[in-house]
Amino acid sequence: MAFVASVVATLLLSVSNLTGTGHLTLYSVTYTVTLHPSDYAMFALLGAAGGLVGALFNALNIRWCAFKAKPGFRRWVGPVQEASLLAFITLISSWPLSLTRYLNAQTIHALFDTCSNEPGETVRSRLQGEFGLCTDGYSNSFGNGLLTSLGVAAAIRFCQTVLTIGTACPAGLFVPSLFIGACLGRCLALGLKALNAGGRLFPHKIDPGVYSMVGAASVLGGVSRMTISLVVIMLELTGGLDYIVPFMISVLMAKAVGDSLNEGIYDLQIVLKGYPFLHEELDVTFTERCYDIMETGLVKLNMSLRPRLQDIRVMVRAFTFRGFPIVDGELFVGYVRRSALEDLLTRMELVRGQNEVVSLEDLLPVIDSTVIRMVPHAPLTQAHQVFKQLGCQRIFVVGSFPGTGQQDVLQGIITKKNYLKFLQDGTVGHRRIPDELRLTSSHFETNGNLRFSYDGPQQESTASHIRLGELFSVLDAAAEAAGENRTEDQQSWAPSASDDEAVKTHDMNGLSTALDREQP
């Protein structure tokens, strides 16, 4: 079906010319320019400039969005008023300059295009003539204030995009970024052409259209920090296969420079809005177990108590959780979402009375029994991988209590939001131990601590004490070097391999109640 849809869309574009370019792609270019090795150095410089512009854009936009999120701002300016005000500001600021007066797509296509090299030949497009991009077939460098117009147009669109990204209505990011980069790239090309008058610096022709395309890719890469996908997008938009290497160079430089200053716009917006997105932690190791951060005191729906319809309805109204764990006695059955449970209760109330007993079989259609389960003493590294690779929002911690033969006894829960909070405030996860930190027998102390000493060159040894419980992964090596038996020390802070010992030895006091709560 996808192939059929693609064929139909391609035929429709070919017949109707919806892009207005006469080609399938929006910014199609039909010219080819032989690039000189010095051009690649300029493309790298243009990519670095795009990274700086993108980093500045991200910093300003995040600060503006954070300011708008304050209650004081929203008390006076609502989403509709904000969108209307920004639309008025955009109209007023875009109208005086011809480069910003037209739609971005039309202007970008004119900026990407090249001028003819033959004297006396007419301008290739009407917009190029109106913008003053070409004069008598040649690229116009300083005539009619073109450099000033391009710089002012880029600044205007930059400020407009900073204000509009994050509003309640859809606001473009790709096309405005392409426009800003296209203006900057053409400015650089025109400046080089002016400096190269008479061929003193470069023995080849400098084409502003190519620099405009590369500049567009660099600014968009500096804002979004995309790499391979952005190169493919630029290739598809322009159809210029000959320019894939310049795209690669500029995007790579833009990402390198931008990453050295701040994160991409999407990562920053995710953090600002508090979305539970888990990044890959390359320099953090986990020595904790699931029981260290699991949350107890859960509100459970125990079906062995034979609850009535009225009882379940009262429980749902009393708590604002998004869902409830279902247990049958001590056995964990699964998880039911609040909305699904409410719908089921509504349907059951139509045919049953309020005092009717609800059985486990009645709830089976809405119970999710395939939720992720982990044992209490499982390493937190496994929970980290589960959250990252499976994308689940919660992990149920199940085990067994002494004297019971049941293995799936619900003991707690780890939610992704709370796990991220623990990770961000440093409650869990520790920086990896450098190679210079070496364990010796003299560093094993009898008070249950390990002392690491730094033996780096030309530095005095420094000592930092780390809890024995936080170094379970290296405890065997330390105990072997010291000739000590770690049995007593281990039992004082961590459970043994069995779930029964985990329940006996680990103190659960002070852990807060947790299920995902509805945000106010």
From TrEMBL:
Protein localization: Membrane
Q: Which UniProt keywords are listed? A: Chloride, Ion transport, Kinase, Membrane, Transferase, Transmembrane, Transmembrane helix, Transport
Extract the GO molecular function terms from the UniProt entry.
Answer: kinase activity; voltage-gated chloride channel activity
Membrane topology field: Multi-pass membrane protein
List the transmembrane segments: 41-62
Query: What sections of the sequence does the record tag as coiled-coil?
Result: none
What this protein is called in its record is: MOB kinase activator-like 1-like A
